[in-house]
Amino acid sequence: MSTRSVRPSEEDADSPELTAVQAALAAEHAAVYGYGLLGGRVDGKRGAEARAAYDGHRARRDALARAVRDLGGRPVVSDAAYALPFAVADSPSAVRLAAVLEDRIAGAYADLVRAAEGPRRKEAAGALREAAVRA
Description:
- The chain is mainly alpha-helical.
- The protein has a single domain (16-74, 85-134), classed as Ferritin, core subunit, four-helix bundle (Ferritin).
- Helix content is 68%, strand content 0%.
- The protein is built from four helices and no strands.
- The protein has helices at residues 16-38, 44-70, 91-115, 118-134.
- It is globular, with a radius of gyration of 15 Å.
- Mean pLDDT is 91; it is low at 3-12.
């Protein structure tokens, strides 16, 4: 699943933190879409894990949108749909997609850890850790 590249506007060109928050937000939009798609293809313990991840990504997406506004930016919006890296037709492919989503989220949060300070950096590090564990 690809996420669009986030280009800073002239207003936020001097803010690496805002750019990193926007990129993490774009990645969370993609993760919410992906987990919404794969959730119906897994059941049992994996299904419960997928639902928990979906809820977690929605919460992080909403928090990142607030962070963008707090930094003076306009939150990047979700695409209507995202291209999947492969067909997701069954439980094994759904689990593979979840791992891809978490790997991509981890990259976005690693960038945010580098760009942020204080509480936002701590939150990003926690999100990075969670993505690594889920992957």
